[in-house]
Design a protein that fits this description.
The chain is mainly α and 936 residues long. The chain has 44 helices and 8 strands.
Length: 936
């Protein structure tokens, strides 16, 4: 292979923050404590780079690099190696780096492993080893603590690509490079090195396949092989079966059947079946898999072409008649010789992939459509099949695979309908994981291209374009898109009329079109302020969701219910959409269903349930490569955490949500995240900060928040503004909020409006307004908002010197906050009760007893953490590892029922104050007093 693009060395380590934290903790402790650490990862993931980073980051002493030595027959014993390392650490701590320790011979590994086990903390030797995880870890290193390296996340891989290419790669080329590298840094660099500058910039077509045998072998450190012909065939058969597998592993029985067809008559010699399994493979039950995905790809790519085709043919023969028709056809297509088109094979593959009755995942169908496209000569049909492959990849939650397929589908000769379908998929991909402004334009183009041949699909594209404008907070663009009039169907396409004069929905396509039409009409009326005309069509969408079972229709039903403020219908529609998406294996739709569920729970005031859905939604969104959806889930998590004593959690989710929101233009997620930060400020008594944040969101001006979200933050702003003395600003937003409350889309709005009026009212009017707000809460439900109103009423009563009434209200507020997990607001209620001379339940009186549940070591750690010490500082003070501190701290949190270091500090402080008060009242010596966890 001849390199044509000069790849410069990356100027920084990309990602690996968790691994670097582990290394940093080891390096920081070396001046007083020796340690050993094993870095494990498949070839190409950057083990050597991390070792070099550790060596550069250790200024406290010398760094030694150990290798096996040039003389393979010269060996040192463990005792000699141990003496050498201890001698090197006499004057200063020493870091010993051993790269690729798995390549050492058995005697050298044994000596190294024994020396590592015999090193003590007092030796001040840090032993850092790296091994490849494409084989089992040698038993000599099995007891060492391990830090695993995983493939880079897509944003980190993209940053590495931009770093090594100076950002000159064309977008389509960039997407294909990232998809082929699968997060492996070495493979990504090898692929870039393979391209010419013209190919990298998109001026010439990319070579096919992009990840060829040479690039894969370069990243894997060579072409893997086996000790015998049987082992090599076994490796290749497992690798070939993996090309059409539903997951990382394959059926061992299928591999055995293919091997028997490949070698029907074994010759004289040892029985191949008695051979040990090659070290690159793992057998778990009846499933075989490679330890390293990169090694699997390399084995397949570097095999001789005729042998590779023979293996695929054997797999196809073994699968024939076994109910796996699509998989068998795929292997049959890979057994064909040469790159020439094969129309018959392509047609069979495409037809079988399109058969929804067949047992095949979206991922397998995507592979089949893509292979059918490769074998198709006609440009239009090839584009159509690449587009179908991209759609299946999206449904499988693999947008990184869909983007290159959509790029391959670009063909100017393809019909408008095919190009429109590709643009629709491209827009949906960007809507979930890209700039939503770009998604809006792609979806508008899709609607235009589809209008003539597929008006129903054009309407779907137009509504998706409105969704993109909604996410961006672009109200004019959203209205303009909703105002687009889709071309009416041809006479032959028009649905028949039922006896009531309405269109009779003849099939799933008709019903889907009706849902799109009604959703569009209701959404447009709502945004135009014609609230009386929005309810009927949106209500129709909600009702259809009660009888349909398609996840897309159910998602529209949940969205319509949220627009109408029917949180119960939204929860039901979201839950049914989630079940339908999971049942169909549509990984791309699961995060969105969880998003609607989380929003519905949040609107209903059920923050713990919202948190549960959002946590799962965040995990699934990140797995599916949907950063925009993940940003929305982070915003919900920030809002849920903002009512509890978790400022660090709120800040983390707000920062992550805003990072994506700002880069991708997500105004809705940004507004929710900023509201969460402000509500956290308000809960901790920082009214001025909260008023400043919220004023930017709710007051008129260019920085006002998302058009459909800012009103939800008005009650928080009014409360903060009144506390900050900004009464006029508070009054300014109430007129608009009153109209919002009258519409009924937010079940809490009427009660919140009365509460806001009470905060701004004269003394003689406030009492009645607070009572009116509580009546509205009783009608709407929602523990958290009701408790907030009761708290404000109790504060008002206390300041009006009505202590008996105030105590009752504040006790009710405290119980409400505790029932919904609103810790920071519960503390406000406790403070108010203390000001009245009352002893709130669950406060300081119970803290000593709860601390008494801890072990002495847990209590020592809890006290130091409460004083502000980090886990590393606690570990150094107590002479234990940070892992031990982490373990005990988790136990402390679980035993005390706290969720944050702040809450722990408050509990320890309360316990200490209680102990001091008891000591002042009780003259007995400390040893005779009742033992509690708060005692020293």
């Amino acid at each position: 292979m001849t390199g044509q693009t000069t790849v410069r060395t990356a100027v920084r380590v990309h990602g690996r923050s968790a691994q670097r934290r582990a290394l940093r903790a080891m390096l920081d402790a070396l001046p007083t404590h020796g340690a050993q650490l094993l870095l494990a990862g498949e070839p190409g993931l950057g083990r050597t780079t991390l070792l070099q980073w550790a060596a550069r980051s250790f200024p406290a002493g010398p760094v030694l690099h150990l290798g096996p030595g040039p003389d393979a027959n010269a060996h040192v014993t463990a005792e000699q190696l141990l003496d050498t390392l201890r001698a090197a650490a006499v004057a200063a701590p020493v870091l010993v780096c051993v790269d690729d320790a798995h390549r050492w011979d058995a005697r050298a590994r044994t000596a190294l492993g024994r020396a590592a086990r015999r090193l003590s903390a007092a030796d001040r030797v840090g032993l850092l080893l790296s091994v490849a995880s494409d084989r089992a870890v040698a038993p000599e290193f099995a007891r060492l603590p391990v830090v695993h390296l995983d493939p880079l996340a897509p944003p980190r891989a993209a940053a590495l690509l931009d770093d090594v290419t100076d950002g000159v790669a064309a977008p389509a080329v960039r997407e294909q490079l990232l998809a082929e590298a699968e997060g492996n840094p070495a493979l990504l660099v090898a692929l870039v090195r393979r391209l010419s500058p013209a190919e990298l910039r998109g001026h010439r077509p990319l070579p096919h396949p992009l990840a060829d045998a040479a690039a894969l072998a370069e990243a894997a450190g060579g072409a893997p092989t086996g000790p015998s012909a049987h082992a090599r065939d076994l490796l290749l058969t497992v690798a070939a079966a993996g090309e059409a597998s539903e997951g990382a592993d394959v059926d061992a029985a299928l591999v055995g059947a293919a091997l028997r067809r490949l070698r029907p008559a074994p010759g004289p010699g040892p029985d191949p079946g008695a051979e040990a399994l090659p070290e690159q493979l793992v057998l778990a039950g009846d499933r075989l898999r490679f330890r390293s995905p990169l090694v699997r790809r390399t084995v397949h790519a570097t095999a001789a072409a005729d042998r590779r085709r023979a293996v695929h043919r054997a797999l196809a023969d073994a699968l024939d008649g076994g109910g796996h028709r699509l998989t068998a056809l795929l292997h049959r297509s890979w057994s064909l010789g040469g790159p020439a088109p094969a129309p018959a094979s392509a047609d069979r593959l495409a037809a079988t992939a399109a058969d929804g009755a067949g047992p095949a995942s979206h991922r397998l169908r995507a592979t089949a459509y893509a292979r059918a496209a490769e074998l198709t000569a006609d440009g239009a049909r090839r584009a159509e099949r690449y587009t179908a492959a991209a759609e299946q990849a999206l449904l499988a939650g693999r947008p990184e695979r869909a983007r290159p397929l959509l790029a391959a589908a670009r063909d100017g000769a393809a019909p408008a309908a095919v190009r429109g379908r590709a643009e629709l998929l491209r827009g949906v991909t960007e809507l979930r994981d890209g700039p939503v402004g770009d998604a809006h334009q792609s979806l508008l183009l899709a609607a235009s291209l589809l209008a003539a041949d597929d008006p129903a699909e054009a309407a779907t594209a137009a509504l998706a374009a409105a969704d993109a404008a909604w996410a961006a907070g672009d109200l004019p663009a959203c209205l303009a898109t909703l105002a687009l009039q889709p071309r009416p169907p041809h006479r032959a396409e028009r649905p028949s009329r039922g006896p009531d004069g309405h269109a009779a929905a003849r099939g799933p396509a008709d019903r889907t079109a009706a849902v799109v039409r009604d959703h569009r009409a209701g959404m447009r009326a709502l945004l135009e302020g014609r609230l009386d005309r929005a309810g009927a069509p949106l209500g129709q969408v909600v009702r259809r969701g009660r009888t349909e079972d398609g996840p897309e229709t159910l998602l529209r039903s949940a969205a319509a219910a949220l627009l109408l403020g029917d949180v119960d219908a939204a929860r039901s529609g979201g839950a049914r959409a989630l079940a339908a998406a999971r049942q169909l294996g549509s990984d791309a739709l699961v995060p969105q269903a969880l998003e609607y569920l989380a929003y519905a729970e949040l609107r209903a005031g059920r923050h713990p349930q919202a948190r549960t859905h959002a946590e799962e939604g965040l995990r699934t969104a990140l797995r599916a490569g949907q950063r925009n959806t993940a940003a929305h889930h982070r915003a919900v998590l920030a809002l849920a955490a903002s009512i509890d004593e978790e400022p660090d959690v709120v800040a983390r989710h707000v920062t992550a949500a805003l990072d994506t929101a700002r880069r991708h233009g997500l105004a809705q997620a940004a507004t929710l995240a900023q509201w969460a930060a402000a509500r956290a400020d308000l809960g901790r008594g920082r009214a001025f900060d909260a008023a400043d944040r919220l004023g930017l969101l709710v007051l008129p001006g260019p920085g006002r928040g998302h058009f459909a979200v800012w009103r939800l933050a008005v009650p928080c702003f009014v409360e903060a503004a009144v506390l900050a003395g900004r009464h006029e600003d508070a009054r300014e937003v109430l007129t608009d909020f009153a109209g919002w409350a009258a519409f009924g889309a937010d079940p809490q709005a009427a009660a919140q409006l009365a509460r806001c009026h009470a905060l701004l009212a004269l003394e003689e009017d406030a009492d009645a307004l607070y009572r009116r707000a509580l009546d509205r809460h009783d009608e709407a439900g929602g523990d958290f908002e009701r408790a907030r109103t009761v708290l404000l009423y109790g504060k008002w009563l206390r300041r009006r010197r009505r202590p008996r009434e105030a105590r009752g209200r504040l006790g009710t507020a405290l119980a409400g906050f505790e029932s919904c997990g609103a810790g920071v607001w519960a503390e406000q209620a406790r403070d108010e009760l203390r000001a009245l001379g009352a002893a709130p339940q669950g406060g300081a009186a119970s803290a000593p007893a709860r601390l008494g549940r801890l072990t002495p070591q847990q209590l020592r750690i809890a006290r130091q953490v409460a004083e502000g010490a980090t886990n590393r500082e606690v570990a150094l003070t107590l002479g234990v590892s940070t892992r031990t501190v982490d373990y005990h701290l988790r136990k402390v949190f679980a035993a005390l029922g706290v969720r944050s270091r702040l809450e722990l500090a408050r509990m320890v402080g309360q316990a200490e104050r209680t102990r001091q008060a008891q000591a002042a009242r009780d003259p007995r010596p400390a040893g005779q007093q009742e033992k509690t966890g708060a005692q020293p």
